[in-house]
Design a protein that fits this description.
mainly alpha
Length: 332
């Protein structure tokens, strides 16, 4: 029995410095927004629509509208991440690999503690999600009637027109990706953020709370997204009036419930994973990339928690609640 117990402990310790695990955590740390967007896209196009469609005693039209919004949101999130967030992540990683080339000497001295430096760069990487939240929500709402026409209307003419318009926009020379000049300006801007003394002071004071950064940015992004989405839905001329109230109520209800339940669940899991993290640190204490691995764990944990709650459990609750609330309001 003792031999088996010892073998199990040795196997567990060896799994904590498994090359694939460490490489995955490093990748998540280097590309937090990309990882979150990828996980979000998979969940939003599979788990969430299924959860909505399986909601009992709910209007079919509302379920259809909520499902379209889920697809639209996932597509736009992936698009904005590819166009904006990934380039920002690449630039931050480039600066991190060769900080002497981009940062001031006093910055390097101030942020000589790797944890402080990594915390500040994570703020910039994950903050990109908050910055893109408003345009993201506007594009999502604009895409809802288009997807509705493609998926649920049988008129071939409408589909052809939409496809032609899409092709026209794709061939439009105004839609240009990051070029060298923009890339340099963005690099200079991000370098100036890291050189900013106020941000440096914030990082040195709060880096000990790095485990809560991913959760905090996720909550802030959801709040901005929800508020902007409600305003965009309300002002949209292409979404049917009968669908507006259910959509707005659904957005508010789902965001509110997901933030509350997600934070509670994440706190419980965080408390229960302290032992795992302590063992992980012990197993990798001589690895120079340990701070990155811990960052990866702190990003992975809330992403999984929020994904399972937001895309699995919440859609069913919010769909049912929003459907009933919109019917009550319509009666009044």
């Amino acid at each position: 029995m003792k031999i088996n117990s010892l073998n199990n402990e040795l196997n567990f310790k060896s799994s904590l410095n498994n090359k694939f695990l460490l490489k995955s955590l490093e990748k998540i740390s280097d590309h937090p927004a990309s990882f979150c967007a990828g996980a979000s896209f998979i969940c939003a196009t599979t788990i969430k629509p299924l959860s909505i469609l399986l909601t009992p005693k709910t209007d079919k039209e509302n379920k259809k509208t909520f499902s379209i919004e889920a697809f639209s949101s996932a597509f736009i999130k992936l698009l904005t991440t590819s166009a904006v967030t990934i380039p920002i992540e690449k630039i931050v990683n480039k600066i991190s690999k060769n900080p002497q080339e981009f940062l001031k000497k006093e910055t390097l001295e101030k942020l000589k503690n790797a944890k402080d430096f990594n915390f500040l760069t994570q703020i910039i990487k994950q903050g990109a999600n908050i910055i893109t939240a408003i345009p993201k929500s506007m594009l999502t709402v604009a895409l809802i009637p288009i997807l509705n026409s493609i998926l649920f209307k049988e008129k071939k003419e409408n589909k052809d027109n939409i496809l032609k318009e899409t092709i026209k926009k794709e061939n439009n020379p105004n839609f240009i990706a990051f070029n060298g000049n923009i890339n340099k300006k963005t690099t200079d801007f991000i370098s100036s953020l890291i050189n900013n003394k106020t941000l440096q002071n914030f990082a040195t004071k709060n880096s000990k709370n790095d485990k809560n950064l991913a959760k905090a940015t996720s909550v802030a992004t959801d709040i901005v997204l929800a508020g902007s989405s409600v305003l965009s839905i309300n002002s949209s001329k292409k979404i049917d009036k009968k669908n507006k109230k259910p959509l707005m109520i659904n957005k508010i209800v789902s965001t509110g419930i997901s933030i509350i339940t997600g934070c509670i669940a994440d706190s419980l899991i965080q408390n229960n994973t302290k032992n795992f993290i302590e063992k992980f640190i012990t197993a990798n204490k001589n690895n120079p990339k340990l701070p990155k691995y811990i960052e990866g764990i702190n990003i992975l944990r809330p992403t999984i928690v929020f994904a399972l709650i937001y895309y699995g459990l919440i859609p069913m609750i919010s769909t049912y609640t929003s459907d009933k609330l919109s019917k009550v309001e319509n009666k009044n």
